[in-house]
Amino acid sequence: MRTFILTTAAVFLAIVTTEAKGHKPTDKGVSSFSKEQFAADFDHTSNAVWRRTSLFDEVSFIEDGKSYTAFYDTHSQLVGTTSIARFSDLPANAQTRIRKDYKNYNVESVVKYDDNELNATDIQLFGLQTDAADSYFVELKKDNRRLVVQVYTSGDVTFFHDIK
Length: 164
Known about the structure:
Layout: H1 2-19, H2 32-41, E1 45-52, E2 57-63, E3 66-72, E4 78-85, H3 92-101, E5 106-115, E6 123-125, E7 128-130, E8 135-142, E9 145-152, E10 157-163
Antiparallel strand pairs: 1-2, 2-3, 3-4, 4-5, 5-8, 6-7, 8-9, 9-10
C-alpha cells in the first residue's frame, strides 16, 4: 500500500510539473540514452515510470522510500529532480517569513527542486522557465488566488509566479 501511495505521489508530481505548463506527457519518444544515464545517476531505484514532454524526458521513481521526478534534457543529461516536501522542511526563517507575509494563505504543496549544477539547462516549473538553484517552491492559496513562492536554502523567500 505504501509503495502504491508513493508511486501515486510521484506520478502526481510529474503530471503537475508538466500539465500545469501545458506540455502533455507521452510515453513515446523517451531517449534510450536518457534511460541509460538515469541508471548511472540513480542506481537504487524502483517503480520507474518514463514519459516524454516537449521539453524533457521525465522519470518518476522511488529511491529510499521517497518519490522523485528526474528531468533529462535533449542531450540526455540530468537537469534536476523534484520531490514532494513538507512546510516543516523549509528553513525556519523562511517558515516565519511566509507565515508573516502570507498569513491568510493556506499551504497547498511544497516541492523541493534539486538542481544539477553541472548542467546549464533551465528547468520549467509551474509554467515558467527558471535557472533555479536548489530550492523549494511553495504553492499558496487564498480564496481564488493561487501563487508560488520560491524558498532558497538560505531561507530567502521570493515571489515566483501567480497560478491562473
